[in-house]
Each structure stands twice: as structure tokens, then as C-alpha cells.
Amino acid sequence: MKFFLDTAEINDIRELAASGLVDGITTNPSLVLKSGRQFVDVVREICEIVPGPVSAEVISTDHETMLAEGRKLAKIAANVVVKVPLTPDGLKTCNKLSKEGTKVNVTLCFTPAQALLAAKSGAAYISPFVGRLDDIGTDGMKLIADVVQIYRAYAHIKTEVLVASVRHPIHIIEAAKLGADVATMPPSVLRQMFNHPLTDKGLAAFLADWAKTGQKIL
Ligand code: G3P
What we know:
Radius of gyration: 19 Å
Bound molecules: SN-glycerol-3-phosphate
Shape: globular
Largest sheet: 8 strands, parallel, barrel
CATH architecture: Alpha-Beta Barrel
């Protein structure tokens, strides 16, 4: 399973990219707002840090302007993936950009039917939002199960399932069990994945015993 960070915070990206665990980045207009940075500048900087796919989202809602925005974003760096919303104009734009050779991430997916439309539109990634479905009292992970099942039933579908709106490590584990291709997560969730109190306790005991041996490795 590939791990993407869902953030536009450069410090987090630098730190976690250095761990070797980060395969790509996703951003959205809300995350750009939070970063306080100029959109194009921050996307360019992220692309210089992370060689993998970096999603940058269009902000128009009509096809022609989305297409122009997508083409402009794609020119920022070779690893930019243009993100479009799951609307009729968004999918029309996805179709066109994909045929031009630009990878597209279709975002704001909440149903298997929407995911099927995105695959037919040539999307490189579909982003089903698990957390926001959980937030309204529905089972977000059921959507991942449905989309994975549908995509796997057709060998010609190459669209990757990118689990988005992740809230905690359990979302990652459940999505991995289902065989989702990618999970994009806030930096805090990636950090949480390391944690277990028995790891901390066990390490403290090993180090205390090692100190008693009086030996050194280096
Ligand atoms: O970037 C898309 C998605 O991951 C947003 O997540 O937490 O705002 O629902 P969230």
C-alpha cells in the first residue's frame, strides 16, 4: 500500500519524506489555506521534495476553466497530478486531461457509482472520503470495499483507489486489508502508526539491561 501525506505543510513533508515512508502528497484548497502559502509556490516546493505524485486541485467548476487550470498546474512539475471534483464538468476535464497524458485524481467521491464514472473517465486515482462518511453516521470503509471490488472485477480498470479523509490508523489498516492501492493521511496519522506503549516499555527495558552489560557497539 502506498502512503501519501494529505497536507501542504512543508515542514511536515520534509520531516516525514526523509523517513522513506512517503510515496506522494495530496493537497486541497482547505489545506493550502491552512498553510498560508501561495498555491503554485507551495506545490512547486512540494514537488521538489517528493518525487512521487503530488495532487493539486483545480478551483473552477466549469469544464473550460478547469481544463485551463489543470493544464497550468500540470506544467508546475512532471509529478503533478491534477485533482478535479466528482462533477460532470470535473469528469469531462478528467477525460480530456487523461487523454493528454496528465494524471488526474478525482476527489469528493462518496458512492461506488461515482467511482465507476471516474474510472470510465480515465482517472489515475479515485479519492473516496471515508472520514466524512463516518462523520455523518455511515460506514466509510464499506465504500472502499465496494470500489475495490468493482475495480478488481475489470482488468482494464487501472484507476487506483486512494483512500482519503483518513482520521486514524484503523482507517489505514482496514483499507489495507481491503487491498486499497493508496491511503492519504494527515501527518499526525502517520506518526500515530508508530506508537504502542509496549514498544516504548520494551525498548526501555532492553536499554536498561544493555547498560548493565557495560558493553558498546560503537
Ligand atoms: O484531501 C482530501 C481529504 O483527505 C480531506 O480529508 O479530513 O478534510 O475530510 P478531511
